[in-house]
């Protein structure tokens, strides 16, 4: 698999227009657009989104959100970690290792990573070194939590 | 649209086998299966899942999970509410009002309902009387929250 360059996406009208190509588009993106239109945020500020471009076209993206140690209910010892969501590669660009490059980028940041593996994507996450963790209905509320443990980190007992 | 009978699903091996037909199948279902196999839970106990049958076949389902008032960050006044997830109708049974019957059932319970509208299902939720609420990145973490307000309930200020 080819390795693809992952870049942090700046929020501007061009990025927001590209986001409209993705299936997982909703209030997070609309809220960013309103903030930009209302001058509540500046053009080109850094977002929680990372992406892969083919030429000028954004073809894959994910959001990485750092959760503070005090809210950590997954890892032992408790620590800051990343929640990864909206991992998506546009049709026509799948099977080229773009998703893998995005996930490898999240693992390169040195913190544990947690995601909600959706719609039978379990084998993808396992290939990426993620593991399912024990389901707790209060914490997980229907999610399908997969985590990546860096060296020395394990599952938190609940 | 026809109205379909919604029943609460009992956890047993037959139900769990039917769950395997749905795309959103994961650790919640696997955990229920392990609990049943290990005699940690009894056969035929009530689950948080509700479904619609065609004959003997489970063709639609959702999970409804009651959240305690003290964790309510969506509604004013703060109150117990339902989180609705894994709403899904099998291919071949879509377009018959089965999803609508499930959602109407959730609204009939007398409490507000919150869901995460996914993959451009916004128009469905709006048709069902749900509304998008203001996106807060700390609370919503990439979700696309839609809520249904009963009479006298409004959005919580954050």
TrEMBL record, chains A, B:
Superkingdom to which the source organism belongs: Bacteria
Entry annotated with the keyword ATP-binding: no
Record keywords, A-Z: Acyltransferase, Transferase
One Pfam family cited in the UniProt record for this chain: Acetyltransf_1
EC number annotated for this UniProt entry: 2.3.1.-
PROSITE patterns membership: GNAT
Enzyme class name: transferase
InterPro entries: GNAT_dom, YlbP
Residues of the signal peptide: none
Limits of the N-acetyltransferase domain: 9-151
Database matches in HAMAP family: Acetyltransf_YlbP
Protein name according to UniProt: Uncharacterized N-acetyltransferase KS419_11720
Organism of this sequence: Evansella tamaricis
């Amino acid at each position: 698999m080819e390795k693809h360059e992952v870049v942090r996406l700046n929020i501007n009208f061009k990025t927001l227009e590209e986001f409209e190509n993705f299936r997982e588009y909703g209030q997070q993106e609309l809220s960013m657009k309103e903030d930009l239109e209302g001058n509540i945020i500046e053009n080109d500020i850094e977002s929680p989104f990372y992406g892969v471009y083919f030429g000028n076209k954004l073809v894959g993206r994910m959001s990485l959100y750092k959760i503070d140690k005090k809210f950590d209910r997954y890892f032992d010892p408790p620590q800051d970690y990343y929640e990864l969501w909206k991992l998506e590669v546009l049709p026509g660009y799948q099977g080229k290792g773009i998703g893998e490059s995005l996930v490898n980028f999240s693992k390169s940041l040195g913190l544990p990573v947690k995601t909600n593996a959706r719609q039978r994507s379990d084998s993808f996450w396992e290939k990426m070194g993620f593991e399912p963790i024990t389901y707790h209905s209060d914490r997980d509320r229907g999610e399908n939590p997969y985590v990546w443990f860096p060296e020395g980190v394990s599952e938190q007992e609940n």
